[in-house]
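Re: that backbone. Tokens:
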């Protein structure tokens, strides 16, 4: 308010000065100078008054700020004192808590570890099909940063106890099952402990990633499936044999990866098929020769028991060369008998050379397949490196399968060839013995006639 009044006075004093005219003489100039001096003095007094007023205001504000500073310093001292007291109290309470808790800290760490281990085990357990909510509890307990409560400890104990109890029980329940075609069907599932699950004549596998039961793409033999079907249909309390996989489905899952006989043969490629064709040809030749030798052996045995000569067996055809009524020298008779035996030998030894050749070719083809498979394997290594073994499995499979097929064909053919050769040699030996006896009788006859 005082500043506003001073401003108005200054304006009032300055306006007359601005309105005055220029002095006409020295007297007027003197009067004007006096008036200006008076006005200047008044202005100076106003400025002094304003300065004094501003100085008093600044002094008042400074004193007020100092009072506030002293108040805040006192408040800071009180807060520091309170903080020190509370910190000391907290340390005392922490020491008291450590004293009271004792070994509970180690116990709670063990509980969290057990919860983590149990969670990983129960995730792969078949019992989780109907009890999925316990996995969330175990995961939360294992990751908790706070000490577990009594209720959580009891729930953990009950969860482990329920799993132990379920592992020794057989249970039937309704659950969604993913079939081989990819469809999801609600089926009645029979669970044997935590090891094997079975539904509608097919074994199941538990997928821990999705929490679903899946039919095995390749089922075990029919005998095991029938056994589990009878077990599922049995009455409560009845003792029945069952199939149990102690690996919780791992062995059953390996059935999907185990190739069948047809798939193994296909792994051998075109060389494997050639080996099998040669084996089939060898078996056909061996069967025909066996029947021929069997028929010839039967005819020779009958001819040895009767005196009537038959042209339907090798021995009869050889005996027909000798005629008691014709006088024949020993050398001519022996030559004729040898000629007859030579005519019979190709029939008795027919197919043996073929079997020997096939038995020799089969392992050679297997070796060829081995070399081809190894070349393919090295090409895969050159192109893709050794990072992925599946890229090399095709060549390795061909290398091993063709060798196996070659040996599987050659060994039986060698045994069959040996057996047929022995049987053929026995028949030829019989023909030689009968021929020698005919020559001996003819020599005795000629010696008697000469005497």
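Recovered sequence:
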């Amino acid at each position: 308010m005082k500043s506003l009044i001073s401003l108005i006075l200054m304006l009032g004093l300055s306006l007359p000065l601005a309105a005055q005219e220029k002095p006409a003489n020295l007297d007027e100039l003197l009067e004007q100078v006096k008036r200006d001096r008076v006005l200047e003095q008044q202005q100076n007094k106003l400025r002094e008054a304003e300065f004094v007023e501003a100085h008093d205001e600044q002094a008042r504000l400074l004193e007020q700020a100092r009072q506030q500073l002293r108040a805040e310093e006192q408040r800071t001292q009180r807060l520091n004192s309170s903080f020190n007291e509370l910190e000391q109290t907290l340390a005392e309470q922490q020491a008291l808590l450590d004293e009271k808790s004792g070994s509970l800290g180690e116990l709670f760490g063990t509980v969290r570890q057990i919860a983590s281990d149990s969670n990983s085990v129960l995730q792969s357990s078949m019992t989780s099909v109907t009890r999925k909510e316990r996995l969330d509890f175990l995961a939360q307990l294992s990751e908790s940063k706070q000490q577990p409560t009594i209720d959580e400890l009891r729930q953990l104990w009950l969860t482990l106890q329920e799993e132990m109890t379920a592992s020794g029980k057989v249970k039937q329940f309704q659950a969604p099952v993913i079939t081989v075609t990819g469809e999801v069907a609600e089926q009645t599932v029979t669970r044997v402990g935590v090891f094997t699950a079975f539904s509608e004549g097919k074994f199941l596998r538990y997928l821990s990633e999705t929490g679903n039961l899946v039919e095995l793409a390749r089922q075990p033999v029919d005998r095991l499936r029938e056994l589990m079907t009878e077990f599922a249909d049995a009455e409560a309390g009845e003792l029945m044999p069952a199939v149990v996989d102690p690996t919780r489905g791992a062995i059953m899952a390996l059935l999907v990866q185990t190739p069948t006989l047809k798939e193994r043969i296909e792994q051998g490629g075109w060389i494997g098929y050639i080996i099998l064709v040669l084996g089939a040809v060898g078996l056909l030749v061996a069967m025909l020769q066996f029947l021929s030798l069997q028929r010839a052996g039967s005819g020779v045995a009958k001819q040895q028991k009767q005196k009537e000569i038959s042209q339907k067996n090798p021995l009869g055809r050889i005996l027909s060369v000798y005629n008691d009524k014709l006088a024949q020298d020993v050398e001519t008779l022996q030559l004729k008998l040898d000629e007859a035996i030579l005519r019979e030998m190709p029939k008795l030894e027919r197919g043996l050379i073929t079997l020997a050749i096939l038995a020799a070719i089969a392992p050679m083809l297997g070796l060829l397949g081995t070399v081809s498979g190894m070349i393919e394997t090295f090409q895969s290594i050159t192109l893709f490196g050794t990072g992925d073994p599946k890229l090399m499995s095709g060549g390795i499979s061909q290398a091993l399968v063709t060798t196996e097929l070659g040996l599987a064909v050659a060994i039986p053919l060698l045994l069959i060839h040996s057996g047929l050769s022995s049987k053929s040699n026995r028949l030829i030996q019989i023909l030689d013995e009968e021929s020698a006896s005919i020559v001996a009788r003819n020599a005795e006859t000629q010696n008697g006639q000469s005497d």
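The radius of gyration is 58 Å. Confidence is low (pLDDT under 50) at residues 1-19.
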